[in-house]
Amino acid sequence: MKKLINQPDQVVSESLQGFAAAYPDLVRAHFDPTYIARADAPVKGKVGVLSGGGSGHEPMHGGFVGPGMLDAACPGAVFTSPTPDQMLEATRAIDGGAGVLHIVKNYTGDIMNFEMAAELARAEGIEVESVVIQDDVAVKDSLYTAGRRGVGATVLAEKLCGAAAEQRRPLAEVAAVCRRVADGARSMGMALTSCAVPHVGRPTFDLPEDEMEIGIGIHGEPGRARMKLRSADEIVEMLMAPVLEDLPFQRGDRVLLFVNGMGGTPLIELYIVYRKAREIAERHGLIVARNLVGPYITSLEMAGCSITLLKLDDDLLNLWDAPVKTAGLRWGC
Amino acid sequence: MNATLRTQSKLTRGDVLAWIARYAGVIAENRQWLTDLDAAIGDGDHGANMDRGFQAVLAKLPALAEADIGAIFKAVGMTLLSTVGGASGPLYGTFFLQAAQPLAGKTELELNDWIAAVEMGVNGIIKRGRAEVGEKTMVDTLAPALAALKAAAQAGMGWKPAAQRAADAAHQGALSTVPLVARKGRASYLGERSAGHQDPGATSAFLLFDSLAQVVNDADTPAAPRSAHAA
Fold it and tell me: With CB atoms counted within 10 Å of each terminal CB, which end of chain B scores lower, N or C?
């Protein structure tokens, strides 16, 4: 597949160099070990909020570093978890004395690497709390799997926890906000085309021209079903049904509706998805109090989308509306 | 005593370095195979990740020529932790870091030293990965390899047959993952569809024990100075 790159093994570092050069007012890129931190880190007396994961999901996570969201992000190789030394160094760099929250997506590699980093940081006397995001209803959550994957809710958790930390809430309370988001969000995605990892060079999976994969993961992991392509409205019905079924939404609930682009689907199509998703949510008696539409947690050039619903309360609403100033999300500042 | 059972009783530091270098070479040679196994049930990066990590290890070996074996294991573990990523990094890193503990200060290894090290390493992996035998992971290779080492020691065997039996048990262990349904890691998302494929982590773990058996076999020819690089 065609890529706008130089060398496959230089993709992450060169992209990071460009990103840091584009946003010198917001971030600093550090190398060896690699992490992106707020330009003014550490912020004294504020809980540091750290996330990270494999690269290839831009703007997540580095694009969410800045006031009101993440203090640092650790990018791994494309679709590969970052390593504990990166996370430890980033944790040290953003600890303003109030401890650090690790927001971890539920993938085996991410879990183990963040776990080791948290152990190392605690051994140095840094207070660390970790919260795991696992919102993908496409995966059967059971003792017999690695559990649900962390997807769209991660973006929302990073925004909401960043806002809580900015208000100088203590670590336990920022972590509690994160758990509320983790518990109250559900997502489901779909793909029209595959992505291609740069150092592999060919599509991650084969998807015929007239087929789609429902329940796709953000690394091209298989979903629930492969079927013939349908209309946007029918696809949105298929994505919304399992999300709505799976708790914790009731009539009258206020929700945040997040329609995410996988990287290769234009906004013009994402708004078609949002139109129908909103209609379905309202038909179920939900009040769509806030929304987010756009490519925020992507899967390289994959075409497709995911839909996330987050149940809101007054506190989460206020945290959502609080100012944020990052490359990927910006308002109120 | 049967001459074929007269084997050296100790593994030297040079043997350990040769084993690690051999394994790095074996991983490089089998990079595509490991990646293909991973592509079938995971995300297709196991070969690339392991190769990146062990090439970094290989670069550090010359500086470890005078280190004790515990220090060598620790350096290997830390290097893997910071270079492999994914799930393999913490798992292999944990194996070497835990195995390093009973080897601290040693410059040669009795078979029992090795058994103690492998036991610590395997327990570390089980704790980190929360996996048991039968879940289609590297534990399916490591647990039988450890059991084979213990049985060989109890039977009074020396290094050479013990290392070979461990490698054979590891091979059987890796093959035993083929019919299993994955319950850990990315492969578990596939559910029943993961059956019929050999687990890539169980395979790279087999190669670890197989490389040691190769080096121990080579060690039967004494006095030949070995390069730190894989043949």
Answer: N
**Terminal Cα distance for chain B, rounded:** 32
- Cβ-Cβ contacts under 8 Å for B151 (sequence gap 6 or more): B165
Clarify whether residues A196 and A139 are in a common domain: no
Residue A3 inside a domain? The answer is no
In this structure, are residues B56 and B79 in contact, taking their beta carbons and an 8 Å threshold?
yes
Given the residues A30, A57, A61, A102, the one annotated as active site: A57
The pTM of this model reads: 0.90
Coil, strand or helix: which one is A63? helix
- CA pair distance B42, A80, nearest whole angstrom: 12
CA distances to A163, A167, A329 from A318, rounded to whole Å, are 9, 11, 16
> Which fold would CATH assign to domain B10-218?
1.25.40
CA–CA dist B125, A204 (Å, integer): 29
Chain A interface disruption, residue of B34, B38, B41, B43, most A CBs within 10 A: B43
The yes-or-no answer on residue A199 being catalytic is no
A204 and A147 within one domain: no
CATH of the domain at A137: 3.40.50.10440
Residue A112 lies in a domain: yes
Say if the Cβ atoms of A144 and B43 lie within 8 Å: no
Inform me whether the C-beta atom of residue A201 falls under 8 Å from chain B C-beta atoms. Answer: no
Contact A38, A26 (CB under 8 A): yes
Query: Residue B8 to residues A64, A212, B67, B222: CA-CA distances in angstroms?
Result: 59, 61, 22, 9
Q: Print the SS3 string covering chain B.
A: CCHHHCCCCCEEHHHHHHHHHHHHHHHHHCHHHHHHHHHHHCCCCHHHHHHHHHHHHHHHHHHHCCCCHHHHHHHHHHHHHHHCCCCHHHHHHHHHHHHHHHHCCCCEECHHHHHHHHHHHHHHHHHHHCCCCCCCCCHHHHHHHHHHHHHHHHCCCCHHHHHHHHHHHHHHHHHHCCCCCCCCCHHHHHHHHHCCCCCHHHHHHHHHHHHHHHHHHHCCCCCCCCCCCCC
Of B48, B128, B191, the CB nearest to A112: B128
Per-residue pLDDT reduced to its tens digit, A247-277: 778 899 999 999 999 999 999 999 999 999 9
Cβ neighbours, 10 Å, residue B133: 15
Its domain, for residue A152, covers 9-183+320-331
Residue A144: its H or E element: none
Chain A contact for B32 (CB, 8 A cutoff) = no
- Please check whether residue A292 lies inside any domain of the structure: yes
CB < 8 Å from B in window 15-34 of A: 33
Nearest-angstrom CA–CA distance, B155 and B199: 31
Among A33, A82, A200, beta carbon nearest to B44: A200
Q: pLDDT, tens digit, for every residue of A222-247?
A: 788 899 999 999 999 999 999 999 97
pLDDT range class, residue B180, cuts 50, 70, 90? very high
